[in-house]
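TL;DR need structure tokens for one chain.
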Amino acid sequence: MKLVIAEPLAVSDAHLRELFSPLSEAGWTIETYVDRPSDQAELGRRLASADAAVIANYPCRAEALAQAAQLRYLCIAFTGVDHADIAYCREHHIAVSNCAGYSTEAVAELVFGMVLSLCRSLPQADPAVRSGQGSAGFLGTEIAGKRFGIIGTGAIGRRTGELARAFGCDVWGWSRTPKDDAIHYTDLDTLLSTCDIVSIHLPLTEETRRLIGTRELALMKPTALLINTARSPIVDAAALADALKNGRIGGAGIDVYDTEPPLPADHPLLSAPRCLLTPHIGFFSRQAMERRAAIVFDNIQAWKDGRQKNVIC
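>> reply
TL;DR here they are.
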């Protein structure tokens, strides 16, 4: 059996070798790459001789999968799977698992890094001091006492709610399947129109794509903050940029985009005021990467033993 880890998993080679040693000892060939593929053709070449393969968040389209004639298992080292052609995998009997749960803490903590940065103007405060300025213009806002809305209360949304309560917030949520008795659930329009901070934690589906557009942004308080660490097409970037430029909402923190950074120079959010942008790092902590690698191994071992876990198809 040959396993191809088609893009880096952000852990050391030594850690990866130790983790996957049971497969090596069982006679598996393990091929790893230290860089991301340059395009789908390159990804296809990497997958061509694989029986099982691992990708992270690099797109995996039919063009690449068509070159992998003997591929029978694909482990997506990521929570979302919209960047992979799952329909192709189903049609060609390729089993797929994801790695849900590894980044729960990392993403929830980034939410509050963004909220604190926006409420206290931290990105502007540091250069102000370095250029000889004082505190004028830096009157901040406290998080305590705010109404905190969570759109999507899966594992990350619920953990975000726990942190919000620790900050002294009143936590509200919108979800198709309410799961947390400590969250006050309501409809989406009410959440958007009454919350001071709105944090999005939904998977990207056809139902959630562009869920937050011009109409929804118009419902929000003029002082409200919108935080998006979920898959970007849930929020209409052009509509959000317009809302920020026209002062219809108080600010935004965005970690995900229609395409992976670097962003094109004409991306609407690059020129939007009161908008904190990070290059898709919500999941990217040392601890999360180690948890992810462990889940990848566990997924592969389970599939090998005929008991597939974290099943997508």
